[in-house]
Design goal:
The chain has 185 residues and is mostly helical. It has 6 helices and no strands.
Length: 185
């Protein structure tokens, strides 16, 4: 037999149901209905992403990997190697020594990569907040369930104490009757 959410809020959280936040009301309602709170927030979050957001996340993941660093070094060595080969064969490389064109390419890459990484980090922050909120819901429900179990155990203990006291009262009455009968002989 479940209790109404208003009673659970008053007994366990010491606040009225109306004083609770929307999140807490949802958890108390689930406790009252004996429904689960846990869910896969990663799946929910991934389902809301647009194609552009998914692409940005993949680009940010690649941009922060050892594979990217290896590819960047390989591209730099190829660039420098091509300049050296062209310098020896033709006499004039396509990007002479202070490598201004290479600097421009690297600057453009950094200028495009930075916002993509920032967008991905912002989404990760939102995802982390969703996970923290979900953790709070699960923890609150677990706490309410434990408090409910404590109440049930306390009720059972008090009932057993009452039964024990009643049993002792009957035993004392029986003992007094026996002593009274034996004392009368």
């Amino acid at each position: 037999m479940s209790r109404p959410p208003q009673e659970i809020a008053a007994a366990m959280l010491r606040r009225s149901f109306e004083e609770l936040s929307e999140l807490e009301r949802g958890v108390v309602g689930r406790v009252a209905d004996r429904r689960h709170v846990s869910r896969n927030v990663n799946h929910e979050f991934e389902g809301q992403l647009t194609v552009g957001q998914r692409l940005a996340d993949r680009m940010a993941a690649f941009g922060g990997s050892w594979v990217f660093i290896g590819c960047a070094f390989a591209a730099l060595f190829v660039w420098l190697g091509l300049n050296a080969v062209i310098l020896k064969r033709v006499g004039k490389p396509f990007d002479p020594f202070p490598f201004i064109l290479l600097n421009l390419v690297l600057s453009c890459l950094a200028a495009l990569q930075a916002p993509v990484i920032m967008m991905s980090q912002n989404r990760q922050g939102v995802k982390d907040r969703m996970a923290a909120e979900h953790d709070y819901e699960v923890n609150l429900k677990a706490e309410l369930e434990v408090m409910g179990l404590h109440e049930k155990l306390d009720g059972l203990r008090e009932q057993q104490w009452a039964e024990l006291i009643e049993l002792q009262r009957r035993q004392l009455a029986l003992l007094e009757r026996i002593v009274g009968e034996r004392g009368g002989r």
